[in-house]
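input
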Amino acid sequence: MPNYKVHVVGGAAIGIGAMMATGAWQEASLPTTIEYVGCAVIGSLFPDIDIKSKGQKLFYMALTATLLILLWYQRTTWFVALSLIGMIPLLLRHRGIMHHPWFISCCAGIPALYLYANNHPYSHLVIDLFYFALGAFSHVMLDIGLFNFCRKALIGR
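output
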């Protein structure tokens, strides 16, 4: 079982590899490259938010900051919704749904479809969600292996 350092390296490698494969490497500025690779690294830590880990610590730090901002702007509906969503990982077993390729696809795909379909001002985040999903997939592949990852994605077990 790889530790968080291996997952971070795997996420960075998949992010750089995707940029090279798509040709984004040639067009992207340094801040854009850092953004894309950073999203892949964050994604590579995401599947482990259901256990005590660096990914969980990062997730709850970001969630706490977001909740404080929502309180400041008096967005109580979003505050309550995100508070409830934030409790879900604590109720899950490790390597359950958080490590499933379909769940990862939905976590990145549903917000991406919403942003893209509604011509949202933040629709550029669709690319960030793509790199996030690649990073999360790299995590699962490092944990269970490429063959088992493909089997899990296609068959569901």
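quick obs: The chain has eight helices and no strands.
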